[in-house]
Amino acid sequence: MFGGILTNSAERSSEERERYQRFYCGLCRKLKADYGAIGMASLTYDMTFVAILLSSLYELEEEEDRCRCAMRPVRSHPYVITAATEYSADMNMILAYYQYGDDWQDDGNARARRKAEQVEPYLPAIRQKHPRQCAAIEDCLAELGEMERANELNPDLPANCFGKLMGELLAWRADEYAGTLRSMGAALGRFVYLLDAVNDLKADIRKQRYNPLVSQLAGDYTPMLTLMMAECTAEFETLPVNKDRHLLENILYSGVWQSYRTKRKGDE
């Protein structure tokens, strides 16, 4: 369910590519600094999006520097860190913990289990810093687990549950933007959950894994997904986002569709 909030590289300018990379590297840098190698290994595009969105909305002060890393060792490259980067790193870690646990339970992935064990010692401090968000993440994922065990085939129920999780995650602060961010995140979460279900449907049927869309195998999912993203972008458009707006629009209007389009093309 995580990793699908992408950019559309073909439609980004060179400046936007550089800007996105700076935030991506900044999040990686923060994950490594706070959580070590296991933090860096858990880096996601989803939380990069959150860092950019919140940094832009709140017009946060940016710490800029340069570094080298294992992926780009030859030349130093620039990165950007804001207060939203730190928040995104914390959310990245708690989500990674449950993703690793899910991979272990679903596929018996011993490597995922070891990763979850490495992340677990960091969880108490994250919960202390962000009690509302962490409680929502844990409660919603527990509820999703119950739906999976019950083989719930009404896709709206798990999608709404994951939407609630994303809504609480985007609502970083209790302020005038919280309601809009919560609604935006809820719609985005519903989209992400069902997009993942659509993309994985054939593989889940083959491997006999839970998927709420198994009873709708012959359906056309484009209208459903389009409606959810329309709800998300309608909320986004009401936010006073100026800096990096075009980059965020690239993600919300085009990037999030990349995996769906690639999957449909491959199935044709």
Q: Which bin fits the share of residues in helices? A: 55-70%
Average pLDDT number: 91
Lateral arrangement of strands in the main beta sheet: 1-2
The run of helices and strands is HHEEHHHHHHHHH
Q: Give the count of helical stretches.
A: 11
Rg on CA atoms, Å: 18 Å
Low-confidence stretches: none
- Tell me the major beta sheet: 2 strands, antiparallel
What are its keywords?
mainly alpha; 268 residues; 4% strand; two-stranded antiparallel ribbon
What does this structure look like?
There is one protein chain. With 268 residues, the chain is mainly α. Helix content is 68%, strand content 4%. It has helices at 14-41, 45-57, 83-107, 110-119, 123-129, 131-149, 156-170, 178-207, 222-237, 245-253, 258-267, and strands spanning 63-67, 77-81. Helix 5 crosses helix 6. The radius of gyration is 18 Å and the shape is globular. The chain starts with 13 loop residues before the first helix and ends with a helix.
